[in-house]
Amino acid sequence: MYKLIKPVFFQFDPEKIHYTVTDTLKFAQKIWGLPRLLKSMYTVNDKNLEREVFGLKFKNPVGLAAGFDKNGEFIEELANFGFGFIEVGTVTPLPQPGNDKPRMFRLPADEALINRMGFNNKGVEVLARKLKSVKREGILIGGNIGKNKVTPNEDAVSDYIKCFDALFDVVDYFVVNVSSPNTPGLRALQEKEPLKNILHTLQKRNLKNGVFRPILLKIAPDLSNEQLDDIVEIVQETGIAGVIATNTTISRENLQSPESKTSETGGLSGKPLTARSTEVIRYLAQQSNRAFPIIGVGGIHSAKDAKEKLEAGASLVQVYTGFIYEGPGLIKRILKSLA
User: Fold this and answer.
1) What is the pLDDT of residue 135?
2) Can you cite a GO biological process for this protein (predicted)?
3) Which residues neighbour 300 within 8 Å (Cβ) at sequence distance 6 or greater?
4) Is 225 annotated to bind ligand?
5) Where are the domains of the chain?
6) Does 267 count as an annotated binding residue?
7) Distance of alpha carbon 268 from its chain centroid, rounded?
8) Residue 143's closest CA among 195, 182, 98, 90?
9) What is the model's pLDDT at position 181?
């Protein structure tokens, strides 16, 4: 069915159709019997799919990556498509509109997206209130946290603290996002000293609260091997739970789409990222001797793509652009293949 309606969706602006579709899902959730029907169509229940990772029990290893539901508004609706976990955000302490529109672009010839959204969100307090009312039904929720655009890097840790404290009681794990290319200067926080400062600070608060929340670090695919070695060292030194590999890329190598589209600034996601994200996963797993879990994300458009990331060393995987290009049936195909 999705193959029939996707060409219609792709006639509209990517950001506008995103909200049209999610609003439609919200309306459909209220129709008697429809949520149950969607669950029966897309959910794969199999004990063999369960995973225990960084102390949490996932009903299956396929999640939705951050960015799709920034404000936690569609968790119950998206859960009907069979995800084992959903990551919300990236959220910042204060609401912010993000970058000027248009800020999302399709590259159909490459089965990719370019986005420069800029952490548009309603603020962490709104997200926290929303998550308190969500019916989870076995779905684990991750909170992806960032800093406001106006916050200078030397004060960034305070923004991460505010998000961490506000979401602590309503998420199952945290993701520190210092790898988006769409907030000026943010990627500089991936350097060794500022990154250690942020992670050490959050880990201290984690222990102080008495209840442990796994903290993961989301990294860019554009890091060198030397920088990835630093990431391994930082993860082990700070004692965080693991890594999400990878975020979007600033590279534009080997694209088939016209330059008028590929020259847009922002992060590239989708199939062009498949191989590189898997390389990063494999390198981290080998260099660390699989000392910490990795969530693999980037260019997963098929069950084969997901399996390659798991075989490379990922414990879990996430989809985003593949979900848009392949439709909700992608999750079921991956899960059936793994089961």
Assistant:
1) 87
2) 'de novo' UMP biosynthetic process
3) 274, 306, 309, 317, 318, 319, 322, 330, 334
4) no
5) 2-250+259-338
6) no
7) 14
8) 90
9) 82
22 is in an annotated binding site: no
The one-letter amino acid at 325: Y
The answer on pLDDT for 211 being more than 90 is: no
- The pLDDT of residue 51 is 97
* Euclidean distance between CA atoms 232 and 240, whole angstroms: 11
Choose, from 133, 179, 180, 288, the residue flagged as catalytic: 180
Q: Which residue has the tokens 């993701």?
A: 175
- Would the pTM of this model clear 0.90, i.e. be above it? yes
Structure tokens at 46: 């199999």
Which residue type occupies 310? Answer: L
Is 46 annotated as ligand-binding?
Answer: no
Kind and range of the H or E run holding 268: strand 267-270
- Which residues, at least 6 apart from 302, have a Cβ–Cβ distance to it below 8 Å? 322, 326, 330, 333, 334
Cβ(125)–Cβ(68) below 8 Å: no
Report the alpha-carbon distance of residue 176 to residue 178 in Å, rounded.
Answer: 6
Residue 208 has pLDDT above 90, yes or no: no
Contact 199/215 with Cβ under 8 angstroms?
yes
Is 180 a catalytic site residue? yes
* Distance (Å, whole) CA 152 – CA 215: 23
